[in-house]
UniProtKB/TrEMBL annotation:
<dbReference type="GO" id="GO:0008168">
    <property type="term" value="F:methyltransferase activity"/>
</dbReference>
<dbReference type="GO" id="GO:0015940">
    <property type="term" value="P:pantothenate biosynthetic process"/>
</dbReference>
<feature type="binding site">
    <location>
        <position position="114"/>
    </location>
    <ligand>
        <name>Mg(2+)</name>
    </ligand>
</feature>
<feature type="binding site">
    <location>
        <begin position="45"/>
        <end position="46"/>
    </location>
    <ligand>
        <name>3-methyl-2-oxobutanoate</name>
    </ligand>
</feature>
<feature type="active site" description="Proton acceptor">
    <location>
        <position position="181"/>
    </location>
</feature>
<comment type="pathway">
    <text>Cofactor biosynthesis; (R)-pantothenate biosynthesis; (R)-pantoate from 3-methyl-2-oxobutanoate: step 1/2.</text>
</comment>
<comment type="subunit">
    <text>Homodecamer; pentamer of dimers.</text>
</comment>
<feature type="binding site">
    <location>
        <position position="45"/>
    </location>
    <ligand>
        <name>Mg(2+)</name>
    </ligand>
</feature>
<dbReference type="GO" id="GO:0032259">
    <property type="term" value="P:methylation"/>
</dbReference>
<dbReference type="GO" id="GO:0000287">
    <property type="term" value="F:magnesium ion binding"/>
</dbReference>
<keyword id="KW-0566">Pantothenate biosynthesis</keyword>
<keyword id="KW-0460">Magnesium</keyword>
<dbReference type="GO" id="GO:0003864">
    <property type="term" value="F:3-methyl-2-oxobutanoate hydroxymethyltransferase activity"/>
</dbReference>
<keyword id="KW-0963">Cytoplasm</keyword>
<keyword id="KW-0479">Metal-binding</keyword>
<comment type="function">
    <text>Catalyzes the reversible reaction in which hydroxymethyl group from 5,10-methylenetetrahydrofolate is transferred onto alpha-ketoisovalerate to form ketopantoate.</text>
</comment>
<dbReference type="InterPro" id="IPR040442">
    <property type="entry name" value="Pyrv_kinase-like_dom_sf"/>
</dbReference>
Length: 263
C-alpha cells in the first residue's frame, strides 16, 4: 500500500477516516504492525517505562530514541514513523533542530514534542527547516514532577481554555499533528473540531481524528494497574497479529475508545 504522510493524515481527517497509531520499539513489531495496516508508528519515550523499566520517561536519552527509531525504520514500510524528542532535548529552537536531525537521520519522518505556547518558536524553527512536528498536549508525562502525578488535564474552564489556545498556537506555528492525552471527552471533541490538523487521542475520547496506545498496554503486557484509557486487545484473540488487527479495526469502526476508556 501507499506510504502514509502528513498530507494523507490530513486527508483522512477530512474524509472522516480514523487514524490508527501504535507505539513501537523494534523491527519485528514494526513489520507486523505495518503488515496489519497501522497508519502511524510512534517510537515513544514510553520506552523508558516499557523497555527500560523506569517509572517515568525522564531518563530516556536521544541515543535511546535514535537506536529504537533505526530499528523500527528497518521493519516499517508504509506507516508514518514519528519519534519522540526526549526530556531536555528541545529546550531551545537550535538544540531542538540539532537533535531532531539525529532522529530524522535514524529514520523518523516527524518528531513529537510535549508542551504548549512555549514551544511556538521551536515548532516554527523546525517546520521551516523541513522537520515535521507532532505536538502533545494534556497529560504530558515529561512534566510529571510539575503536574504532581499522572492526572487528567483540562478539567477546569481555565485549563481547557489554555489547552485550546496552545493547540491553535502550535498549529499556527506549523505543527501537522497533535496528540491529546488524558483530557475530558468534550474537550477532545472541541479541540479536534476547532483545528485543521488531525488529533490523536489517548484517553481523550472517541471524537479525536485517531487513537494511539502503547503497544505493551494493548497486548496486555504491563506489570502495574491498567490505566483507564487502556484496552487489552489480546482478549479473545489467539495471536499478536490478530490483536493488532482488532485494535486497528476498533479504531476505524469507532468502537474504541468506549465510554469506560474515557474521562
Ligand atoms: O511515549 C509515548 O508512548 C507517547 C504516547 C503514549 C502518545 O507519547
Ligand atoms: Na511520549
Amino acid at each position: 500500500s501507499k506510504a502514509v504522510t502528513a498530507p494523507s493524515l490530513l486527508a483522512m481527517k477530512s474524509a472522516g477516516e480514523k487514524i490508527a497509531m501504535l507505539t513501537c520499539y523494534d523491527a519485528s513489531f514494526a513489520a507486523l504492525m505495518d503488515k496489519c495496516g497501522v497508519d502511524v508508528l510512534l517510537v515513544g519515550d514510553s520506552l523508558g517505562n516499557v523497555c527500560q523499566g523506569h517509572s517515568s520517561t525522564l531518563p530516556v536519552t536521544l541515543a535511546d530514541i535514535a537506536y529504537h527509531t533505526a530499528s523500527v525504520a528497518r521493519g516499517n514500510h508504509t506507516a508514518l514513523l514519528i519519534a519522540d524528542m526526549p526530556f531536555g532535548t528541545y529546550a531551545t529552537p537550535e538544540s531542538a533542530f540539532d537533535n531532531a536531525v539525529k532522529l530524522m537521520q535514524a529514520g523518523a519522518q516527524m518528531v513529537k514534542l510535549e508542551g504548549g505556547a512555549w514551544l511556538v518558536e521551536t515548532v516554527k524553527f523546525l517546520t521551516e527547516r523541513a522537520v515535521p512536528v507532532c505536538a502533545h498536549l494534556g497529560l504530558t508525562p515529561q512534566s510529571v514532577h510539575q503536574l504532581g502525578g499522572f492526572k487528567v488535564q483540562g478539567k477546569t474552564a481555565e485549563g481547557a481554555e489554555r489547552l485550546k489556545a496552545d493547540a491553535l498556537a502550535l498549529q499556527e506555528a506549523g505543527a501537522s499533528l497533535l496528540v491529546l492525552e488524558a483530557i475530558p471527552t468534550a474537550l477532545g471533541k472541541e479541540v479536534t473540531d476547532m483545528l485543521a490538523m488531525p488529533t490523536i487521542g489517548i484517553g481523550a475520547g472517541p471524537d479525536c481524528s485517531g487513537q494511539v496506545l502503547v503497544m505493551h498496554d494493548m497486548l496486555g503486557v504491563f506489570p502495574g494497574r491498567k490505566a483507564r484509557f487502556v484496552k487489552n486487545f489480546m482478549d479473545g484473540q489467539t495471536s499478536i497479529e490478530a490483536a493488532v488487527r482488532a485494535y486497528i479495526a476498533a479504531v476505524k469502526d469507532k468502537s474504541f475508545p468506549a465510554a469506560e476508556h474515557c474521562f
